[in-house]
Structures are given as C-alpha cells and as structure tokens.
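Need tokens for this chain, all 88 residues.
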Amino acid sequence: MANHKSALKRIRQSERRRKRNQHARSGMRTQIKRFLQSLEAGDADAAQTQFRLTERTVRKAASSGLIPKKRADRQLGRLARRLNAMGQ
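Here are the structure tokens for all 88 residues:
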C-alpha cells in the first residue's frame, strides 16, 4: 500500500482513468458488434448508418489515445471493405 499522500492520490486517479477507459473501450466494441450484426442481417441502409456511428466511435477513441490511430485506421478499413463487399 502507498505511504505518501501523493501516491494515494495517484492510485485514486489511476483507478478513475482505468474505469473511464474501460467504459469507452467497451462502448467501442459494442458499436463494432452492432455494425457486424447489421451486416449479417443484410440490411444495407442499416449497415451504412451503423458504419457511420462505428467510425465516429472508433475515431473518437483513437483521438483520445484509447487506441492507436493506426489500429483505428486498420479496423475501419476492414469494416469498410466488408460493407462495400455487401453492396456488390
């Protein structure tokens, strides 16, 4: 256990940030799953709408430092490819 007052504060801060990051990461993953479900359902309009929401969520996570920007680009590229393949 921490002995210094500042160390105790850092523990509290770290826990708050961990919970915030965990919540944001979970929301991002949920949004990706919703998009994939709309793809599987075969509804192009719903999939397009879900993709826009997913892109916004993933880019926001990347800009806040939750995930690396290159990982966000890669994930969105793969999802966009699946969306485009569905349209053909």
